[in-house]
Amino acid sequence: MSTVQHPDPSDRPARLTVGVVGAGRVGPALAASLQLAGHRPVAVSGVSDTSRRRAEAMLPDVPLVPPAEVLQRADLVLLTVPDDALPGLVTGLAETGAVRPGQLLVHTSGRYGARVLDPALRAGALPLALHPAMTFTGTPVDVQRLAGCAFGVTAPEELRLAAQALVIEMGGEPEWILEENRPLYHAALALGANHLVTLVAQAMELLRTAGVEAPDRMLGPLLGAALDNALRSGDAALTGPVARGDAGTVAAHVTELRRHAPQAVDGYLAMARATADRALAHGLLKPELAEDLLGVLANRAVDGNGTDGTEGTEGNAR
Question: I want to staple 147 with a disulfide (CB 3.0 to 4.6 A). Which of 111, 132, 171, 204 is the partner?
């Protein structure tokens, strides 16, 4: 359970009414967190039945209304819609006159900075980009996970203090990201977090195929230690057959993956090549072992002995 102390509302007189446009997994959690800090959620919009149920569970007694009405009711509006929908939403709200001068308009997209809110800025809104570097479940546990969570923040200079205050009130830590660096920042998070889920899910499937009854219990301690080591030591934490240059072992892996999980082969090869490059660059993989290993990783059919399995057949000239 989180031990982070939220601000005492009596210590902060400037309380805001809060609205949410897009009741996905993120918006209701942020609004609930702001409510703990003394702000008052007053309106939320959601399209699907799932989003409406989520809003009712996370923000009980807060009315569900159309997006334009959310803006009419709220001093601070959270735009928590998918990245590709954000520019059109902002333009539409500005063109219909829904945006009010002096209104704080906050989006949570990692991809975009504050410029995507320019149509609302021209209508008098105060634009903030606050992206929580966290994965969300759409349940109350998300509010607890915001404690200590980093937020990628982009805002005009005159609004930096306001952005910082909002992040801190949600229990987060602001990290300032330049407008032009937002796509790279977001790519880094997606590479680390989103792809991790795919890798772990594939690993669990393969372990079940290999007869392991509880792959989650087997992987938990291993992955926890690997993550901790990587965060502490970076590339020095690399271990395993690729970093050691065990070409025969890697070839056996590829053979078994082709047999049991062909859909995982391309991902295994791509990650193994990236691992080999990093291990070579940091002196972990001996150059004399790298040649055989890189041959195995050349994305062709291999047998368990590290050869390509087609040697001596017609059409194999290279």
Answer: 171
